[in-house]
Amino acid sequence: MYAMRRLQLALCTLSVLSLSYYAAGEGKARSCNDVRQAYSAKGFSLANVPHQEISGEHLRVCPQGYTCCTSDMEDTLHLQSKVEFESLVEQTSHNMRATFVSRHKKFDEFFLELLDTSERSLNSMFTQTYGKLYIQNSEIFQDLFTELKRYYTGGNVNLEEMLNDFWSKLLERMFQLLNSQYHFTDDYLECVSKYMDQLKPFGDVPRKLKAQVTRAFIAARTFVQGLMVGREVANRVAKVSHVNVAPACVKALTKMLYCPYCRGLPGLKPCHNYCQNVMRGCLANQADLDAEWNLFIDAMLLVADRLQGPLNIEAVIEPIDIKISEAIMTMQDNSMHVSAKVFQGCGQPKPSGIGRSARGISDVFSGRFKHFSHDERPTTTSGTSLDRLVIDIKEKLRESRRFWSKLPDDICARGLFSELDDEQCWNSHARARSVATAGEGLTNQINNPEVEIDITRPDTLIRQQIMALRVMTNKLKNAYNGNDIVFQDSSKSILFKTEPRYGVKKMKLYLCLGLMAKNMYTVGLKSLHTPAEFLIFLTIFQRI
Fold this sequence. Notes:
Blueprint: H1 2-29, H2 33-41, E1 54-55, E2 66-67, H3 71-130, H4 132-136, H5 139-152, H6 159-178, E3 182-183, H7 186-193, H8 196-199, H9 205-243, H10 247-257, H11 259-262, H12 272-282, H13 284-287, H14 290-306, H15 313-317, H16 320-333, H17 335-346, E4 350-351, H18 361-364, H19 386-399, H20 403-411, E5 425-426, E6 431-432, H21 460-480, E7 484-489, E8 493-499, E9 507-512, H22 516-519, H23 531-541
Antiparallel strand pairs: 1-2, 3-4, 5-6, 7-8, 8-9
Helix pairs in contact: 3-5, 3-9, 3-10, 3-16, 3-19, 3-20, 5-6, 6-7, 6-9, 9-14, 9-21, 10-12, 12-20, 14-19, 14-21, 21-23
């Protein structure tokens, strides 16, 4: 009995000594001062922040046990985690998104200024050479540049038909001027234009110019549309990261970013692999964009190659006035032969009773333009050339490949956001060694130990952006081959129109909504299997 009492006394003494040791030593080690400083630095009130650790049964996200966090603190840090995640995605994707915005603006401004410069040059030179005769007929040339600009800016313009109309109108006007002693009715002039292909009054200039202008403008318009689509997709995907942050993601972010606070370790960074797991889980849908994004970038680079070389858009647009002038000279040289053939085919016109002008038409058309040397060609106010601009854009495009799959890694860059030392880092519950890394993309998150993601429910907006990229990639590939694809949405049907480079073959498929699925292969969208994807597909046409 005595021995038993002595044992109880000894145990009691040990308990008291243990509590005294914790109060004297461990209490200082578990102070919350560092947490209070870090919490205050975030701009939060210290009113309810404990000075020393408290029991943590109330915690719902962070490990329960002794903690420096109250329930209110955990809620505040939970919301802060979402805000900081949005900021991280915003900052990490900013340069890439800004690149598409700035390069789209530069290319668009450069191209439109190139057109304006060419139009001003033609107007100036033709006024000097042809004088009043040109001024009286200048609307033909003004309409040409207006239609070229309208095509480039997305208007429903058939380049080949528009250029054919230009040469037909020019032929009619010149035929009247060269035969001003006759009166021509509208029906007669329509008959004259029918001899364009047979007589080739302007020589080979219309055919060559049509081929060059068509290919160059298709490439330029599709390229600038591609830059616009890349910009819009990047902005929308970044926005998804703000709006559609899953609760499981926010919970995982809180554990990674702020549970160290609750454990009294506010300066401890997450382990690199742990950070990757959390970010790959939170950005799983974005990573699924990567495959189509890379195909889009590759197609953009192909079309960029078309913008360079001897037949680039700059080389086509700048000397367009010289080429048209050469065509006019050819028409003047062949005027007697052309007139004779037309009179033979369309009939002898009635005399106008006015007679030809005292000043011979040959005198009017006697002026020829000199060819510019490379240094004399007009330059844009941007002070750059097309080659330099395209080289810069191509470099930036290459840098954006695999952007979405690399985004988690970029956010978790070692030393910046995650800990360099894999032995001394936060691994979701303590200072310890990092864990294994999950794969990229939505389906691989089934093995993610940090973020519980429903892999059966992909993000709808991300799927829409994948579809937008797929449609644009198809347009880019066709543009590379010299074909123009125009989608027009109407209330009853969608027109899918292919315009080959030389106009030898034209194909128009009027796709009624009920037949769209049957013909989907035509546009290379074989993956549209569900009604939801079909509706997404229709939506894309309104945006591109």
